[in-house]
Amino acid sequence: MALSIGAALGLAVLAGGCSSIRDHRGYLVDKTLVESVQAGIDNRLSVERTLGRPTFVSQFGNQDWYYVSRETKTPAFLRPRAYDQMVLRVRFDEQGNVVGVDRKGMEQVARIDPEGDTTPTLGRERGFLEDLFGNVGAVGGPGGAQVPTGPGPNGS
Length: 156
Hints:
Layout (H helix, E strand, L loop, with lengths): L1 H16 L3 E6 L4 H6 L7 H8 L4 E2 L7 E10 L6 E12 L5 E7 L23 H6 L23
Antiparallel strand pairs: 1-3, 2-3, 3-4, 4-5
């Protein structure tokens, strides 16, 4: 009986170690506050008081405000993967009034899978031994530094 309880407890500990770790990164979204921002009614000050400072501000053109929120899962021994994302963009006119509010989600996430284990490069392919011993004999060989032979401090 004690052996089966110990085995069950051990199995529960092992199974618990394989669970995913959930993590939140970025802006904490309150849907009621996000939906309360309206074009033609709000301005920069009211948006800042409602939503707080943005995650970042656009650097070119109109200064749009972006609020970025991302939920990730990290399975055991693997890299984090995003399973939910929200990017809220608040657009302003020259006077600082809200012109529009855009919401984007996971459709904006691009999954990029590298092809193969190596990065293609221009030039010839060299093996491990060529990389290791490639410079042997190159010092002082043809096209390298010339040994002085005439009159002078080093050339008798």
